[in-house]
């Protein structure tokens, strides 16, 4: 038993230190790294509580996906370009402090009420054993009791994804869209504005406008035996 | 420096680059976009980079992985071959051409020698012409093999480079047996060939002709219908026929776009008008078409070599136009007769002095039209020696193609233009 | 089960770790020999008999090289990043079962380090942390090629992790467990296929999932044709351009060990792990079988590398999101429907 306590304090200490570091680090990438450390410590706490599934999902989702995408953005930002990163913006700082305080109070309230009433939730060790383990217990909780909330959260996330796609569409970005039209756009199946004008009568292949041809060779060469032979092929003629 | 230095632009002083208006490769709309966007990443590829085929330097402006601006910078392998050609005697110029496009050295020799022969009014004998065709078509296959190996390696097909270099060895062995050198062959001479054809060379070439089509089928199996290869090459780097002509592209870059121009057919030199072969033309002008065209050119080269080998096997005529005064005298005569020894002495010490005039000769190099322009003032060194290297001209289209492409396409585009920096920078 | 003393587990873990390290060294030898054979050349021959000491010589060489840190690099992250790759790669092996519990040396011994009830997800979780090593190393090098490699790695790994994880859902449904040991035991039951009685390997009931898993696993380990983060032709080794000496070798170790771990993982999930003729009687045969199965996968990796060109970045992402993701979801839906129907719950 004391071993577990010592290990818990070790993990908790590292978690709190790294969480402090997230705020204190001057470089946003360092903050992200420390946040990763913090997430992994929390996963370790979950393991100690016997919630292995939660721990692994914590790592896969938060550490493995969300934080990676966060890093993706942070890597491209030069900290020198953020003059007001640590100073100024009093309104944001005040709001941030307020939100943090509210969160802290919520957690404290939850802990205190539980301690005062001494009431335990339904997730006791016996109940978990009864359904076959914490993974099963979590699954049953989510897909029966909290199904509606779960589905609503899914919808919200889907809306978020759609919104991101709409925002990232290059055609909506004015200059960007204008630029892309003017380049030989090899990443786009449309090709270029210059590449294949629909010259009248020229038997331009179906590949000119639409999607790429199916796999397979799908293309033949013209074999010219005569230097004066001028086959009509894709592309403009003089 | 003292105050006597003239101002740029006056008194015949050259105008330096910084005084000129910027002549970039981008259009105005690109410039606006590049200036407006703050998220661009400038990436300097080369001159030390594994995929720029030597010391090409490409400065890219990227938005994510999409290239907005591409600026190829050349000159890192400039050795001044043209100037060297103007300070060496005619026969000494030929070895310098080996060093331009070193993967197809016999072709460079051929163009240079043909220009000199035109200047001197020498015509090489028929048998020598057949051998010249054999050697230039072999070097075409060798060059295309290097292109295929490195192009496939750039796109990620690791093994192709080793397969291609395996077959290229066979060709280099033929070169070695023929002239003693493998890379910088210095094979062609003014007037033909002064040394005899070694015994066993024809069987060696026939063995290559027997082996190669099967090996080429292996390349086909690995790449031609490979979905990843198709995805990486189809509809990438499309050059419409008009653009190809505007950029004065030659070789497979032009024929891949469907323009029927091959010097071997359009202005036949050597004995090409007597040989049967077809010129493959692409239909779309993308990287894949140029791949198909070059693959087919290798097959046609095999066809040409087979005809030539059949022809020369029965011939026993001389290899050198010894009757001309511009040709090195026969080795045997140099040893035995006084006139030949004197002529040889003068040929070596003073060199030949072609009549005053100018000549241009072009060959269908594996990479395009390789032209040599030479002006004689009657002395024993050329007054002007100009090399029209095909890949220097073809490289011009790179920045046009790269704009809007992905970063990984740049290496495919450099590969498909098929440059050798020795030839680009000269 | 989990009742053996802790020190025995430590000894077994130590053994596995060392076997993995040596296996990684000889994986490079195997790869070079195989590539050599496929490319008409010899591979290493000079160091030791048939070049067998080549991996050791390479290790010594890497130890002796100068350790360069670019001046503009973020030194702390630069130092830390390769270790993440290495550690996370090796930890995945902790849940791979090499067999059940055996009786040897007068004791009951477990042929696995630990039997987590979420073992399969554990492997995925650590492989998802592994990408940090790549991203952070790329960023810390302050080199633009590395940065681009890191960006590619981030996008690639996040996308293919989804495919990798979802392709296993069918297996989880059939096995009814996330524990690799349960999945292994499930595959030792017999399956009646008409006149044939075969072991219930999940490759038979989940062929689509197996193919998708293999594709995603190749992408997840950054191997050809998905080796975009280190594409040597355009990015000049990508994320480890600036790394040298033993720091570089940590990346190298990490990549090869994660290949081995993924191969063992695939063998456990789809090919029955240690199951095979006679494996139920002789535990050492089981270990041999799982190793042979893993080597088949490793050969597959090498074969791909020798054969295929590399994808382009947009094609890679398109493949993941437009082709593989619908297929993997289809697989889940079909498997779930069949599972429910067989339990009589669907109709």
Choose one word for the global shape of chain A: extended
- What is the C-level CATH assignment of the domain at 1-79 in chain A? Mainly Alpha
Q: What is the total domain count of chain B? A: 1
- What's the Cα radius of gyration of chain A? 29 Å
- Which blocks of ≥5 consecutive residues of chain A have pLDDT under 50? 172-216, 234-238
Annotated CATH homologous superfamily of chain B: Cytochrome-c3 Hydrogenase, chain B
Largest sheet of chain A: none
What would you call the structural class of chain A?
Answer: mainly alpha
Averaged pLDDT of chain B:
82
What is the CATH class name of chain B? Mainly Alpha
What is the string of SSEs of chain A from the N terminus onward? HHHHHHHHE
Multimeric status of the protein: heterotrimer
Total number of beta strands of chain B:
7
Gap from first CA to last CA of chain B:
32 Å
Structural class of chain B: mainly alpha
Order of helices and strands of chain B, N to C?
HEEEHHHHHHHHHHEHHHEEEHHHH
- Cα-based radius of gyration of chain B, to the nearest Å: 23 Å
| Strand elements of chain A, count | 1
Q: Average pLDDT value of chain A?
A: 70
Tags for this model:
heterotrimer; A: 238 residues; Four Helix Bundle (Hemerythrin (Met), subunit A); 8 helices; 61% helix; extended; disordered C terminus; B: 426 residues; mainly alpha
């Amino acid at each position: 038993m004391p071993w577990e306590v010592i290990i818990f304090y070790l993990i908790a200490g590292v978690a709190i230190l790294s969480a402090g570091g997230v705020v204190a680090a001057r470089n946003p990438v360092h903050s992200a790294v420390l946040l990763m450390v913090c997430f992994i410590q929390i996963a370790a706490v979950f393991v100690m509580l016997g919630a292995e599934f939660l721990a692994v999902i914590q790592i896969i989702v938060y550490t493995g996906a969300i934080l990676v995408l966060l890093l993706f953005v942070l890597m491209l930002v030069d900290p020198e370009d953020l003059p007001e990163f640590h100073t100024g913006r009093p309104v944001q700082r005040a709001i941030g402090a307020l939100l943090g305080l509210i969160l802290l109070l919520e957690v404290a309230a939850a802990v205190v009420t539980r301690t005062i009433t001494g009431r335990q939730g339904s997730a006791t060790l016996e109940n978990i054993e009864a359904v076959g383990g914490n993974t099963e217990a979590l699954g049953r909780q989510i897909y029966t009791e909290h199904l509606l909330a779960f589905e609503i959260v899914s919808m919200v996330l889907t809306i978020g994804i759609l919104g991101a796609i709409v925002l990232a569409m290059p055609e909506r970005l004015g200059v960007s869209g204008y630029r892309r039209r003017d380049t030989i756009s090899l990443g786009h199946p449309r090709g270029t504005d210059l590449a294949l004008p629909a010259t009248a009568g020229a038997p331009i292949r179906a590949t000119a406008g639409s999607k790429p041809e199916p796999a397979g060779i799908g293309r033949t060469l013209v074999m010219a035996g005569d230097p004066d032979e001028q086959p009509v092929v894709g592309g403009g003629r003089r | 420096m003292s105050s006597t230095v003239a101002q740029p632009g006056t008194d015949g002083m050259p105008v330096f680059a910084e005084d000129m208006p910027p002549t970039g490769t981008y259009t105005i709309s690109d410039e606006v976009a590049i200036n407006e966007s703050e998220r661009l990443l400038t990436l300097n590829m080369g001159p030390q980079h594994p995929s720029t085929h030597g010391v090409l330097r490409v400065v890219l402006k990227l938005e994510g992985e999409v290239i907005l601006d591409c600026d190829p910078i050349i000159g890192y392998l400039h050795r001044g071959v043209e100037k060297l050609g103007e300070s060496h005697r005619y026969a000494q110029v030929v070895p310098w051409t080996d060093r331009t496009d070193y993967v197809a050295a016999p072709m460079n020799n051929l163009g240079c020698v043909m220009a000199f022969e035109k200047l001197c009014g020498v015509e090489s004998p028929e048998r020598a012409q057949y051998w010249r065709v054999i050697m230039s078509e072999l070097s075409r296959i060798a060059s295309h093999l290097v292109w295929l190996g490195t192009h496939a390696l750039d796109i990620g097909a690791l093994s192709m480079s080793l397969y291609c270099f395996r077959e290229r060895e066979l060709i280099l062995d033929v070169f070695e047996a023929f002239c003693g050198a493998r890379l910088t062959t210095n094979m062609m001479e003014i007037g033909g060939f002064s040394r005899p054809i070694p015994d066993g060379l024809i069987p060696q070439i026939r063995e290559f002709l027997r082996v190669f089509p099967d090996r080429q089928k292996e390349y086909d199996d690995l790449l031609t219908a490979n979905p990843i290869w198709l995805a990486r090459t189809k509809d990438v780097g499309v050059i419409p026929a008009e653009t190809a002509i505007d950029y004065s592209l030659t070789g497979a870059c032009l024929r891949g776009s469907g323009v029927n121009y091959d010097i071997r057919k359009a202005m036949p030199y050597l004995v090409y008008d007597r040989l049967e072969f077809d010129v493959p033309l692409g239909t779309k002008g993308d990287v894949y078409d140029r791949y198909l065209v070059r693959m087919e050119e290798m097959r046609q080269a095999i066809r040409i070599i087979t005809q030539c080998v059949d022809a020369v096997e029965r011939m026993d005529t001389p290899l050198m136009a010894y009757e001309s005064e511009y040709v090195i005298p026969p080795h045997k005569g140099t040893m035995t007769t006084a006139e030949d020894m004197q002529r040889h002495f003068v040929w070596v010490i003073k060199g030949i002095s072609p009549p005053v005039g100018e000549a241009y000769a072009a060959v269908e190099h594996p990479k395009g039209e390789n032209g040599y322009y030479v002006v004689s003032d009657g002395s024993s060194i050329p007054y002007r020696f100009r090399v029209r290297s095909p890949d220097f001209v073809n490289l011009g289209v790179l920045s046009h193609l790269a704009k809007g492409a992905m970063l990984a396409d740049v290496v495919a585009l450099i590969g498909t233009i098929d440059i050798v920096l020795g030839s680009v920078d000269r | 089960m989990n009742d053996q003393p802790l020190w025995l587990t430590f000894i077994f873990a130590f053994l596995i770790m060392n076997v993995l390290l040596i296996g990684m060294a000889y994986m490079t030898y195997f790869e070079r020999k195989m590539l050599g054979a496929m490319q008409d050349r010899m591979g290493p021959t000079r160091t030791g008999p048939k070049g067998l000491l080549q991996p050791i010589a390479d290790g010594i060489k890497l130890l002796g090289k100068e350790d360069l840190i670019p001046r503009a690099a973020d030194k702390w992250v630069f130092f830390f990043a390769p270790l993440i790759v290495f550690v996370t790669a090796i930890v995945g092996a902790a849940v791979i079962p090499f067999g059940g519990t055996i009786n040897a040396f007068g004791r009951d011994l477990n042929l696995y380090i630990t039997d987590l009830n979420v073992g399969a997800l554990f492997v995925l979780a650590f492989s998802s942390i592994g990408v940090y090593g790549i991203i952070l190393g790329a960023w810390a090098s302050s080199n633009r090629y590395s940065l681009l490699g890191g960006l590619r790695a981030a996008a690639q790994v996040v996308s293919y992790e989804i495919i990798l994880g979802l392709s296993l859902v069918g297996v989880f449904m059939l096995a009814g467990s996330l524990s690799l040991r349960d999945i292994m035991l499930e595959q030792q039951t017999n399956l009646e296929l008409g006149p044939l009685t075969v072991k219930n390997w999940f490759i038979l009931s989940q062929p689509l999932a197996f193919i998708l898993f293999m594709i995603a696993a190749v992408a997840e380990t950054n191997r050809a044709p998905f080796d975009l983060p280190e594409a040597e032709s355009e990015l000049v080794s990508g994320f480890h351009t600036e790394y040298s000496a033993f720091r570089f070798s940590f990346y190298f170790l990490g990549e090869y060990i994660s290949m081995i771990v993924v191969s063992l993982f695939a063998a456990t999930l789809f090919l029955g792990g240690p199951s095979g003729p006679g494996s139920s009687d002789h535990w050492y045969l089981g270990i041999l079988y799982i190793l042979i199965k893993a080597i088949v996968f490793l050969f597959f990796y090498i074969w791909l590398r020798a054969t295929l060109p590399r994808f382009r970045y947009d094609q890679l992402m398109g493949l993941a999101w437009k082709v593989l993701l619908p297929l993997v979801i289809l697989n889940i839906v079909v498997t779930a429907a069949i599972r429910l129907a067989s339990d009589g719950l669907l109709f």
